[in-house]
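A common beginner's mistake is to predict each chain separately and then try to dock the pieces by hand. The better habit, illustrated here, is to supply every component at once so that their relative placement is modeled jointly.
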Amino acid sequence: MIKEQIEALRKELEQHNYNYYVLSQPTISDIEFDTKLKQLEELERQYPQYADPLSPTQRVGNDISEGFEQVEHLYPMLSLGNTYSEGEVMDFCQRVARGLNGEKFELVCELKFDGTSISLTYENGLLIRAVTRGDGEKGDDVTANVKTIRSIPLKLQGSDYPEKFEIRGEILMPWAVFDELNSEREQQEEPLFANPRNAASGTLKLQNSAQVAKRKLDAYFYYLLGKDIPGDNHYDNLQKARSWGFKVSDAMRVCNSIEELTQYINYWDTERKNLPVATDGIVIKVNSLSQQRNLGFTAKSPRWAIAYKFQAEKAVTRLNTVSYQVGRTGAVTPVANLDPVQLSGTTVRRASLHNADIIAALDLHIGDMVYVEKGGEIIPKITGVDLDARVLLGDKVDFIKQCPECKATLVRYEGESAHYCPNENACPPQIKGKIEHFVSRRAMNIDGLGEETINLLYDNKLILNIADIYELKACDIARLERLGDKSARNIIAGINASKNVPFERVLFALGIRFVGETIAKKLAFAFRNIDEIAAASFEKLISTNEIGGRIAQSIINYFADSANKTMVDNLKNYGLQFSISDEQIAVQSTQLSGLTIVISGTFTLHSRDEYKAIIEQHGGKNTGSVSAKTSFILAGENMGPEKLRKAESLGVKVVSENEFLNLLTDN
Ligand code: IVH
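With all components supplied together, the output reads:
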């Protein structure tokens, strides 16, 4: 039976997810896993009637962007009181003792994970909803995104879980993932995430769960809530939660004395540096739930728990100079050059100064002794000036007015904290940066043209803009230092091959501000060719899925510049792809020809964009609003009430995903 086969595969794959992501003990190879997942995907595609939104295949996410619905928390999500010294922890213990009228009590110590908090609701062992903290009273429903986190069980193990409960925990981006993401962003000149916490919360708020899936988030759980949770103490409840498949930290301890508590704090203050995820302290909780109830809550936090925050590591050193770096987008980053100093095991020589406002707020002077910190942040930052150590007042650090590279007057756009060099097409680092981006792997993928070679070519005036790449001759390259005939031939071959790179990547390669890979793809498929994009009005652009005002304006500005227009024309003449190819829009059948179809709601089997493509590939037309001309509505879950009413009044048929897909396979 197909149904049983599908279910067995789902169970098996979830077990492997658990072994890998929760236990860190995989029992099969990645290839075996992928093969089984593909098998399941294929079966689900063939038998859409057995679709399941909690299937392991759904963990890859989709690109449906519907905004987030606000959901009220059943139990408010409170914060914890913070302490910074052992003395304050003692005060907490005394308050608890008083609150319990001298009754004996146990404390549980655990790590304070530094991510973004989440509340999950399970019913009958199934993940129903995932909601962010929001303002504590209500948060965003981010279920689709959370489902992509492989260490979060979609279906629970065992059978002794309550019928309905909530579990709260922290969503984290592991250090390794964070480092990789930031170095990718650096290459693409996208703003870096300051720390894994920002990266995790930013990721969780992405409108595209397929993107979230790629970011490899993790989650630890530390709080079980509900009417009928199993035991009367926090520690045992969390062990139970672990047995249902949740990732619960091994670092939890029951402490019966102040000494044990102090030991725990001291141990983890150093040992936490070896953990794969960020932590910023210890949480101390009263173990007994009845004692927790007796202690109750203040308006903001429980009286039965407190956080002890680790000190961020600090060092003091001298500020020697401030230099300014200009990136591909023209953004100017101030960097402090310091006397080398040891901080958390590394030698720090430079620290980011972020922007002009931060420099002004610090009232920095050259020669100042400054505090450097490396809290959760990967890039050290300057957090203050030791005014007592200021003997001679050096020059005040004033943000530069002119570009250090091309001397153009810097500008600051409204609402942005950065300064920019506006001289886009003549400022050397901007041009070189644009060329590096153009040839990069995910753009035109021209092998052999690295940063160094581009510098050489630029300095020898062989390429002064992107289009010049296509005028390069092997003999010009071979003459340059460090480059011989062989590498010259390779580069030329790479350049020729890039003429077949599909339009959406060419569009990304142009480096239009805010037009990243995903947006380039959307634009390419929505407009089909560069001329349509260049001619599109602001309104037309923003009516495209995922294109907002900021992106639209940037596209308009790009094409308003005649230098860019000329360059695109040149690139066209060199034979680059500036439209979607025939294969990409190939009509697969005419089954829907003459039909006008409206898409509404959220889908589980394909994304909205995929349905749009399917309709067009079968000769149909997709429109946005329901009218008498609408042939039918392809409706997912939560179809807009307005549309439903209109459909009913016009007598337009509403077709489900499965019905729609069957329609196409039946003929
Ligand atoms: S218990 C009623 N335990 O810290 C309080 N919170 O400042 C329930 N956090 O919002 C929270 N690790 O996001 C608890 N082991 C842990 C934690 C933890 C991190 C976060 C959580 C909470 C914030 C409070």
